[in-house]
Specification:
Elements lengths: L14 E4 L8 E6 L5 E5 L11 E5 L10 E4 L11 E4 L5 E4 L10 E5 L4 E4 L14 E4 L5 E4 L10 E4 L4 E4 L15 E3 L5 E4 L6 E5 L4 E5 L15 E3 L5 E4 L5 E5 L8 E4 L14 E3 L5 E5 L8 E6 L4 E5 L14 E5 L5 E5 L5 E4 L11 E7 L5 E6 L8 E2 L12 E6 L4 E3 L1 E3 L13 E6 L7 E9 L2 E2 L3 E5 L4 E4 L4 E6 L8 E8 L5 E6 L5 E3 L3 E4 L6 E7 L9 E11 L4 E12 L18 E4 L6 E3 L11 E4 L6 E8 L5 E8 L8 E7 L2 E7 L7 E8 L4 E10 L4 E4 L3
Parallel strand pairs: 40-47
Antiparallel strand pairs: 1-28, 2-3, 3-4, 4-5, 6-7, 7-8, 8-9, 10-11, 11-12, 12-13, 14-15, 15-16, 16-17, 18-19, 19-20, 20-21, 22-23, 22-31, 23-24, 24-25, 26-27, 27-28, 29-30, 30-35, 32-33, 32-36, 34-35, 36-37, 36-38, 39-41, 41-45, 42-44, 42-46, 43-45, 46-47, 48-51, 49-50, 50-57, 51-56, 52-55, ...
Length: about 725
């Protein structure tokens, strides 16, 4: 069981602002390039667009997209509208197919560095056309595409980015011919979830197996006629689909090949539907949606709030209504936390969400090191964010689940590096270390910058970055990332730097250290050309053990006193808090820390049977008959703070009657009768504390047999 601390936010709406400069053409699709610029495709030929033209929106010198400028990029070889589109891990762009135009069964690769398009080899033999095919980037960087007219019944394609070939992908499950009009969602385990056209079957692509598998049935109709809306991963770990019927649905992943759990979501208000309609996951955790009545016009805008589980209407760019059909509209998450919007027009708009970015989606920088060729290597966490950003469906994909690097000077100048060779595009990677390479813009002036990594607009805490060639060479190029439980010990506890003079004249150097929890073995010296190097050991001191839990950062500055060249090294100390829930995984082998009440009988035991253990060595086997048995703990909490409650549950007998409930104080999080036998379920809830202590309580009843349950610590 994990309780995570998350600051709250307000419920007010955001604001719309038009871009100062119009685009050179009516704009259709929008893609975020890894250098922070926006790649925008011309609109429908029937609406004045060229069909194969692309343009670039570059933010101004202060990082503003509102005041950005437009330039023309190289055109594609083929006209196409409504097609697959993915930004690849090396920074190139793949487009495939088109519902209209001359490129319905072709694909092209755009190289932003060379500003060139290259037609790929043809798709698998026998394929008639990609058409308006849906696509996703796989964990290995390849791209999975579902053509509308495949080579074989239920066929899919995979583009191999290394060998530049199309190969036949796995056959769809559920005897489906295609995925036309479907929206795909990438899950945290890397699998791809879809609701099959045009009913309530669902299936998932499992990358490790290269196989589509059937999943559980959706409880409500999502396709309205032949259309549906976008799909997203929510901050609480569930997937969420907007329906062309006005229905919505949640999906709780199993995390493996077991069936997930579908649940009906809120019905869209005011008779609205999402039928071929864009939406965007915003940095505040809410979803901006373009919704229409069933007749298609006018389009209205709503924010879906996960915490309130409701839709709230907000103004559009031109007031309450926008008199255009939603399938002409596109949205894109920008790296500054705003959402770019266009409706097949040369006038684009930016939506600025209210509130604050979700801490749960904030990237973290661990190390930054030069590669020796002018590029840099970054490591850290959540570089890909907790969602894919904005979405639409089969007609357009504009995922932005990859890192961008932004540098800000003390005078307000903003620059973007160009990232490439991301270690992956998986989302919700938690504390797993991910990496990216990046190059600096050619126009970057010498100076000291604040560097952040952004993912879908959510920026990391800044780290100092010094750009200036100099004779003072300091190795290691990284600082220290040390971690442990508050009070210590922390590991690693020290790091050694080697200082060398690579110039032609002697230099005096100094080390600036303002941190109270770091000691340096040497703080100044003289280096001669080609002479002996200086060795400096920086280590944690006793003050580190007295720090309250949290993440602490300090920068030590190596300075060449001859020319005032400065090199910064960032030191991060992560003091983890203790687990709020005691004995959450029952690893004591008993119910220590828990209060038992209600219908206590012989069915409440701690077992070592693997069938009843999700992780660790023990699991709780619970399920009295007749009435509820309760397990509870009273936890110290902070009023107004947001916490995450997470636990695992499985039921091996679906005959019923059975019941499981979870309460947070006076709030019931979950209360369901007659659970099915769908394997382990991870239920996660964002909750708010109302007092300085809150009781977390679980209730169990299962008349025919027991209800295995355990937490994930």
């Amino acid at each position: 069981m994990v309780l995570a601390l998350v600051p709250g936010r307000t419920n007010a709406a955001g604001t719309w602002v038009p871009l100062t400069n119009r685009a050179p053409d009516d704009i259709d699709n929008l893609l975020l390039l890894p250098d922070g610029t926006v790649m925008a495709a011309s609109g429908e030929p029937g609406a004045g667009g060229i069909g194969n033209a692309w343009y670039r929106l570059t933010p101004d010198g202060n990082g503003s997209y509102l005041n950005g400028t437009w330039s023309t990029l190289a055109p594609m070889h083929y006209d196409r509208v409504y097609y697959s589109s993915q930004v690849l891990r090396d920074g190139r762009v793949l487009v495939a197919g088109g519902e209209y135009g001359t490129g319905t069964n072709s694909a092209e690769i755009y190289d932003p560095v060379g500003n060139t398009w290259t037609v790929t080899p043809p798709p698998p033999a026998g394929q008639v056309r990609f058409h308006d095919s849906v696509s996703e980037t796989l964990p290995n960087g390849n791209v999975l595409v579902a053509p509308v007219t495949p080579a074989v019944y239920g066929g899919t394609d995979i583009y191999d980015i290394t060998s530049n070939v199309w190969v036949a992908g796995p056959i769809l499950a559920n005897n489906n011919y295609y995925q036309d009009e479907a929206s795909w969602v990438k899950l945290p385990d890397g699998s791809i979830l879809t609701i099959d056209p045009f009913g309530t079957n669902s299936e998932r692509y499992i990358p490790a197996l290269n196989q589509w598998i059937s999943d559980a049935n959706v409880p409500v109709e999502i396709y309205g006629g032949y259309e549906m809306g976008a799909g997203f991963m929510l901050p609480d770990g569930r997937a969420f689909f907007l329906g062309g019927t006005g229905n919505t649905t949640f999906y709780t992943p199993s995390g493996n090949t077991n069936l997930g759990v579908w649940q009906a979501g809120p019905v869209m208000p005011d008779g609205m539907v999402a039928a071929d309609a864009p939406a965007a996951m915003m940095v505040n955790g809410r979803i901006l949606c373009a919704l229409t009545p069933t007749n298609g016009v006018p389009t209205s805008f709503y924010e879906y709030d996960l915490v309130a589980n409701s839709f709230t209407q907000v103004d559009g760019p031109l007031g309450q209504n926008f008199f255009s059909i939603s399938d002409e509209m596109r949205m894109l998450d920008l790296p500054d936390g705003t959402v770019l919007f266009v409706s097949d027009n040369s006038q684009l708009y930016v939506y600025q969400p209210d509130g604050s970015p979700l801490p749960a989606g904030q990237p973290g920088i661990s190390t930054l090191a030069p590669n020796g060729d002018g590029s840099y290597h970054l490591t850290g966490t959540l570089f890909n964010g907790i969602s894919e950003g904005a979405a639409y469906g089969d007609d357009a994909q504009m995922s932005s689940d990859y890192p961008l690097v932004r540098l800000a000077s003390s005078t307000g100048g903003v620059y973007y590096g160009r990232t490439y060779n991301w270690s992956g595009t998986s989302i919700m990677t938690d504390t797993n270390i991910v990496t990216t390479e990046f190059t600096l813009p050619a126009s970057l002036p010498v100076g000291i910058y604040s560097l952040v990594v952004t993912a879908n607009g959510n920026a990391s805490a800044p780290v100092p970055f010094v750009f200036s060639p100099d004779a003072l060479l300091v190795i290691s190029a990284n600082g220290l990332f040390s971690a442990g439980t508050a009070g210590g010990p922390f590991s690693p506890a020290a790091i050694t730097f080697t200082l060398t003079n690579v110039g032609a004249a002697s230099i005096n150097w100094s080390l600036g250290n303002t941190s109270l929890w770091l000691n340096a073995s040497l703080t100044s010296g003289l280096l001669t050309p080609g002479g002996s190097a200086a060795t400096v050991t920086v280590s944690l001191n006793s003050a580190a053990s007295n720090l309250f839990f949290g993440t602490y950062s300090a920068t030590l500055w190596f300075t060449n006193l001859n020319d005032q060249f400065v090199l910064g090294r960032t030191f991060t100390l992560q003091a983890s808090p203790p687990q709020l829930v005691q004995n959450g995984g029952f690893e004591t082998g008993d119910f220590t820390g828990w209060t038992q009440s209600g219908n206590i009988d012989s069915y409440e035991t701690i077992v070592t049977d693997p069938a009843f253990i999700h992780s660790g060595n023990y699991g709780a086997k619970i399920g009295p008959g007749g009435s509820l048995y309760y397990l509870s703990q009273t936890l110290p909490t902070a009023p107004g703070q947001l916490y995450l409650v997470s636990f695992w549950l499985v039921n091996y007998n679906g005959d019923g009657p059975n019941q499981f409930l979870a309460d947070w104080g006076a709030t019931t999080l979950f209360n369901q009768l007659n659970l099915g036998t769908d394997g382990w379920m991870n239920l996660r809830y964002l909750v708010t504390a109302a007092a300085t202590s809150t009781t977390l309580q679980f209730g169990f009843r299962n008349d025919p047999t027991i209800l295995p349950w355990m937490t994930s610590a």
